[in-house]
Amino acid sequence: MQKRIIGKDLEVSAVGLGCMGMSHAYGNQCTPDEARKLIETAIGNGCTFFDTAEVYGELDYPHHNEEMLGEILKPYRSKIVLATKFGVKFDVSTPTVNKPVIPDSRPESIRRSVEGSLCRLQTDHIDLYYQHRQDPDVPVEEVAGVMADLMREGKITHWGLSEVNEDIIRRANTVCP
Description:
alpha/beta; 5 helices
């Protein structure tokens, strides 16, 4: 399979596997065996890039996706690129089926999130850690500062932003490329 470079030096397969649908949002959840077969097939076909988030699960099991992937990908960890996202939670107090997203990128929340993700994913580092949605109450420069700290600590190797404009990316890049 062809490879691509994300950012400056993160090499990934040209086709990645977004794992959200295995346990969240789209129809019925996969069984662990179905998820394992899908992931093993993807790896067998040269896929090295796997994406999840700390909130991909159900209300009664919110971290299901990361936990399932951690178990399945553990034997392949040195051969794959693992991405996960932080910075949102769902407003479970609303009666609607689709719960509203609440951004939360306070530094203490990011630190709590990364520790939880590392544990659930059964890894010592995350290859690509990115902010799921911008938090209007936390300047992106502050988020970038936490990312720089996490990189220095070896907990993440790369970071990114989702659903932001060019100005936000430029501001973040001045603190931590």
